[in-house]
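User: Can you predict the 3D structure for this chain?
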Amino acid sequence: MKTVFLIAAFWISLPLLGANALLVQKQDTLELNVVEVKSPDFEKYAAGQQLISIQEKHLQDFQGDALTEVLQRRTGLFLRQQGPGMLASLTMRGTSTGHNAVFWNGLPINSPSLGQADFSILPTAAIDRVDIHLGSSGALYGTDAIGGAIHLGTRQIFNQGHRLDIGSIIGSFGRWDQSLAYSYSNQTFSTKTRAYRQYARNDFPFRNLSRIHTPIERMPNGEVIQQGFLQDLAWNLSARQQLHAAIWFNEADRQIIPIIGSNTQDQQQDRNLRAMLDYLHFDGKNTWNFKAGIVFDELIFNIGAINKTQQYFLSGEWDRNWNDRVSSRTGFRLTQIDGQLDTYEAQEQRWELYHSHKFVPRPNLTMTANLRQLIYDGNWAPFTPSIGGEWNFLQSTNQQLSLGFAVARSFKVPTLNDRFWNPGGNPELLPEDSYNSEISLQQELTLRGFLIKQHLTMYRMWVDNWIIWLPRGNIWSPENIRNVINSGLEYRAQVEKKVGVHHWSFTGTYNWVQAINQTNTSANDQSKGNQLPYTPEHKVMGTIDWQRSNWSAFISSHWVSERFVATDNQLSVAPYELVDIGIRYQFKFLSNKKITAGFHVNNLMDKEYHIMRLRPMPGRNFQFNCNISL
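Assistant: Here is the predicted structure, written as structure tokens:
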């Protein structure tokens, strides 16, 4: 009933709420006149699939936060979060945490040993743009992209002169963040240097369910310290050539918050180094792109267990616009992986060849096709094709309706831990294999000064050879034993309006997901036909933004349905709803210098909730932001 009410509220709000995004779109169009480093066009070969972009100015609402908070509170996606600052893993369309590819400036950054990225140590302070590709996209991006892909990027603009940004956040439970960014650019050269440090004691009060009368206590062992720096460099070598280099070092030292009833005092240190060099050559209808990069990850658990992985990348790509109707892209990627883990050492080499094609037979019809083949250590991953289309079947002066479809195959190569962990690794594992189909309807409508955008997608996905670790005597070992069918619906609405000097916008999403296990792992297993663990069937999100002159404010809410703890669906975690509010004021001094101050209240209603069982989250908490731009 609550979900139905919230969905109805979205529709009721459509003619009542307003439009700031129309202005945002216009501002973005103006920014295109400024020369900047060319970034990938993710939509070009992804007809029929939904992509969501979060720009730098929208990330400012989460200044100092991890990417976890942006995705959880503004996109409708769900992350399995073990506590504030603790491990946070993404699930898209009901897939597992390792079924989502994550990229930084085009480099894959999923851990080759764990097969996933920890979003709690991806700070927004180091990111200028987030692009989310919903749905199966292995033909475009390679392994892991069964549920979708997340693209993180930095942005370099030329002809901007000098700029210095100083930021600080003070918040509840010992939070204190600082950031510093300096940039300079002229017509041919651009540089940006940034550094950050984030600290939180995380000693928030929680109800201790393991004790008589469930007393309120302070959370122990939750301190988090994270720091890092990022350097971006870009050159316009000529009118037809660009060179972009970036390096990002991040270090996190965390005490691991224990589950309720446990007295563990675990600690974890993460060190990550990522670097890339990108060369672009434009030659009429042709664009050549060559990229080299490295990703070094080190994870130390309780001082004794040290796990290191290194990834080396080399790729090349040729994109050509043959005419106004046909374009194509052909490329390769070579990856060398070296792992020195706590119980084993392993190396792996991967070769990938891919081709994409775009065809526009009519002005209102776009078709795309993608092909990819990966070979890892002599093993052939599933050949991965996809096809999609978008048909604009209705276009008038105030309305546009489009129908999209996509059919795709994706895969996931077994992780190093899956194959080589000692004891228990299984070198004979097959890649996980998936098929996906989806159909979507998109509307853009201008009505009485409102700009309304709606996107509805229905999808169905089959995942075979799903890897699951099972006990075999005294040893746990992975096997390709689980098959899962995921089906669902995604709805996204944006409403924007200007009322006098007030600019209003509303964004709402509803996600319905059924991720149903199709197999039992043993005679006593009762998981067949049940929802996968920690996969909410429903999630609803809504945000209202307001701006007037130098003032801006927002109110945001999201509701998550119950999550089952295990595959037998006997034990669940209660639904929860969170409300956040914030206000910001910006004023200028010394002509073009700016100071921006903001105040946020998170979990306004002081709800007691767990995202995962026996792992409490903070109640009402506050933060004050201040940023100076010189």
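The domain at 2-629 is CATH 2.40.170.20 (Maltoporin; Chain A). The CA atoms of residues 162 and 184 lie 4 Å apart.
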